[in-house]
Design goal:
The complex is a heterohexamer, with 2 copies of chain A, 2 copies of chain B and 2 copies of chain C. Chain A is 35% helix and 21% strand. Chain A is α/β, with parallel strands linked by helices. Chain A has one domain (2-116): 3-Layer(aba) Sandwich (Hypothetical Protein Ychn, Chain: A), CATH 3.40.1260. Chain A is globular, with a radius of gyration of 13 Å. By secondary structure, chain B is of the alpha/beta class. Chain B has a single domain (6-131), classed as DsrEFH-like (Hypothetical Protein Ychn, Chain: A, 3-Layer(aba) Sandwich). Chain B has helices spanning 20-31, 65-68, 83-88, 116-124, and strands at 5-11, 36-42, 78-82, 100-101, 108-109, 112-114, 128-131. In chain B, the strands form 2 sheets. Chain B has a 5-stranded parallel β-sheet with strand order 6-3-2-1-7. Chain B is globular, with a radius of gyration of 14 Å. Chain C has a single domain (2-97), classed as Hypothetical Protein Ychn, Chain: A, CATH 3.40.1260.10. Chain C contains 4 helices and 5 strands, in the order βαβαβαβαβ. Chain C has a 5-stranded parallel β-sheet with strand order 4-3-2-1-5, sandwiched between helices. In chain C, α2 (45-54) links the parallel β2 and β3 (58-61). Chain C is globular, with a radius of gyration of 12 Å. In chain C, 54% of the residues are buried. The chains are: A alpha/beta, B alpha/beta, C alpha/beta.
């Protein structure tokens, strides 16, 4: 089945980002397709390469980047990102900034859209 | 031809205390340009987003009353309000923003106040539901 | 003491908690989504109406009431601007119920 | 339909709202702070206990229960892992009550 | 000599769903090194932060049970729990983390369960109160 | 009187940042001293110069920078900032990154600490 995942909150501050990641890992393991991951609201903070968590903690941006390397389309909303200071220069590899049209296509094309937020 | 997908938005949060309602409105306006059958349901504190006479000037943040007032122009006309959420907040239909005008009669259009059953059944018919 | 509450009483238990810990003479300021508790004739109005009987100093920030278009405010709730907020903080030690 | 709730029922009205809109046959998944609603013997347990009478499929994410040290779970609530969560989503259209 | 300032922390949020409890704990540990009279009050969903036997491994996030278990070593010993918050969540003192041991008797120390009146009066004596 | 202000939430997403700003402006107008402004949790996102809000909207980072230019000490917590990708290179002028000891000094030295968050 084709899933799309929508994340509304930033990394570390809320569990949303972790729940989304754990869900996606499990979906891939079960053989489902991830049509795309879309970051909206504070969710756009998930993909900055400038984050440097303590060494014994997970690196949330790198985790997303690794999923992107598998070919999953990972998009941060441009309007939400601009307002919050997430620009192309600070993105981890394998993610991109684009418009809400991408979210629309995901909502239409995915069999299921799963949202994680606060 | 592929069938047109039904997409619902639920609005559950109060406006202005957070950006969710505002940024959620941006999604609705964009999505309206695509080939989808869109409905919007205001429930819980989301009904405050439809309160008439909002003025954010002294706060210094952007309002969105004018945009809501033109939802119908964006071809979003299936706009519902949960009756219990409205009444328990001391509001009536008269408190709600006009969302446009009827093309033929030019009468002002109001969101439609409905019961929980109606909403629950509408939810069950959707392809995807987004909560903003 | 001054207590501030910034959450909607319809979806969040913060105001109810705050009320449990207010002494007589304590002051309440509603701001941000917290001003929704100051609306008259709602399911939650009784919380503030009851408080007013023991603690007459209950305030709501005007900018936040206006932003939300709230015109029917519970009688007895005083509307203040940010300068009034500053005065309250200068007069009382405080706890922000976040 | 699958409904997901991620907020504590003690401080937030989300679970109560969700329950109002559930049809018979609908499924509920509690996750994140939402799993606090699955704890037995609390002020809020009755919400889930009542739901179970009409809607027997109520789930709570094990990882979230464990993180919070919740060992006394309401009888009838099924514990699942993230793969079980994926299965639920594959089986039902859903609404995340955020 | 300046009087030692009384600083209180209130913990009202549930752990793990957000970082507030975790980052709030970091503040307490730092502040304990300064010359201040610190007290910590757990109320509302904050009492879940003191629940014994938390295991965040499957979630993949860092836990903090061990750190709470050493608060007394950081010379933070005025730790209170609101009784009503505890009881309404189906918890008893036996569910609460040990926060250290008594220096002399080496008995385990538990947070002190108190009534709302006690907390309200303690609040009124503080120089500043931070809510984490 | 000497106030310190603590901000827990990021710009735009929650009203906290706006309330804090409006409070501080009013306090200055009434002749009070601002001992310091401390950003914690997602609050650290307030001071990135990379944000670019729509032209007809307020620029929250620049507003803080202007208050800093008046001599107010504006501090983002280093631990919270590192985890979230807020580093020296992206700060607006007149704000700094430092440790929780700064917050402690503010809590002790200020007559009142006012917290804004979610």
């Amino acid at each position: 089945m084709k899933f799309a995942v929508l994340v509304y909150e930033g990394p570390y501050n809320h569990e949303a980002s972790d729940s989304a990641y754990n869900f996606i890992k499990a979906a891939l393991k079960k053989g489902h397709e991830i049509r795309g991951i879309f970051f909206y609201h504070d969710g756009v903070y998930n993909v900055t390469k400038l984050m440097e968590p303590p060494q014994d903690d997970r690196h949330i941006a790198n985790r997303w980047s690794e999923l992107g390397a598998l070919g999953i389309d990972i998009v941060a909303c441009i309007a939400a990102a601009k307002r919050r200071g997430i620009v192309d220069d600070v993105l981890v590899p394998n993610v991109r900034i684009s418009g809400l049209g991408q979210l629309t296509m995901m909502a239409i094309e995915a069999d299921r859209m799963v949202t994680f937020g606060d | 031809m592929a069938e047109v997908k039904k997409i619902m938005f639920t609005v559950r949060k109060a406006p202005h205390g957070s950006i969710y309602v505002y940024e959620g409105l941006e999604v609705k306006l964009i999505m309206a340009a695509y080939d989808a059958d869109i409905s919007v349901v205001f429930m819980d504190d989301g009904v405050f987003a439809l309160q008439k006479g909002q003025n954010t000037k002294a706060l210094g943040i952007k309002g969105f009353e004018a945009t809501y007032g033109a939802l119908v122009d964006y071809e979003i006309s299936k706009i519902y309000v949960d009756r219990e959420s409205l009444l328990s907040r001391g509001m009536t239909e008269a408190d709600l923003l006009v969302i446009g005008e009827d093309e033929e009669s030019e009468e002002p259009l109001h969101p439609q106040v409905v019961d929980a059953d109606f909403i629950a059944n509408l939810m069950a018919q959707q392809h995807n539901i987004l909560c903003f | 003491m001054l207590h501030t509450v910034n959450k909607s009483p319809f979806q969040n238990g913060t105001l109810a908690s705050c009320l449990r810990f207010m002494n007589s003479g304590d002051v309440l300021l509603l701001l941000e989504d917290g001003v929704l508790a100051a609306a008259a004739g709602t399911r939650c109005s009784a919380m503030i109406e009851q408080l007013l009987q023991s603690n007459p100093e209950v305030y709501a920030l005007t900018a936040d009431l206006d932003a939300r278009g709230l015109k029917r405010v519970i009688p007895g709730v005083k509307q203040i601007d940010y300068e009034g907020f500053v005065d309250l903080v200068a007069q009382h030690s405080m706890h922000a119920w976040l």
